């Protein structure tokens, strides 16, 4: 019985182990050419092209660079079922040194970000 189980499960384990490597994503090596929208210790203003919305946000933190972050965004066209954008507004949603959380009202979509760097609070 044990030999039968071994003959059945060994090929399954071999296939599963071989596929395991296909799903491993190692740490990303962030370089200087990753098209960040800002540089350390500087503000920025990023906006997707008309009709597009932000679909991904990437950020890295660096304590040596003034406890600041680099930011990168990806945009894609908004779904046609949402229709054309009819209005746009900018809103201040947090203060330096605080976390932020925002829920879009009226089925709103995010199409841009603006940030300022304040050296006095390293944020």
Automatic annotation (TrEMBL):
Chief localisation class: secreted
GO annotations of cellular component type: extracellular matrix; extracellular space
Localization per Swiss-Prot or TrEMBL: Secreted
Cleavable signal peptide: 1-18
One of the GO biological process terms: collagen fibril organization
Protein family membership: Belongs to the dermatopontin family.
Domain of life: Eukaryota
Protein's recorded name: DERM protein
Organism: Balaeniceps rex
Keywords for this protein: Disulfide bond, Secreted, Signal
């Amino acid at each position: 019985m044990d030999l039968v189980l071994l003959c059945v499960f060994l090929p399954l384990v071999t296939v599963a182990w071989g596929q395991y490597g296909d799903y491993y994503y190692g740490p990303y090596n962030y370089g200087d050419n990753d098209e960040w929208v800002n540089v350390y210790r500087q503000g920025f203003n990023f906006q997707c092209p008309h009709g597009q919305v932000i679909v991904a946000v990437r950020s890295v933190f660096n304590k040596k660079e003034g406890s600041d972050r680099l930011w990168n965004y990806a945009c894609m066209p908004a779904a046609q079922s949402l229709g054309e954008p009819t209005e746009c507004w900018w809103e201040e949603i947090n203060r330096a040194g605080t976390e932020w959380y925002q829920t879009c009202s009226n089925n709103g979509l995010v199409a841009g970000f603006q940030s300022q760097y304040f050296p006095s609070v390293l944020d």
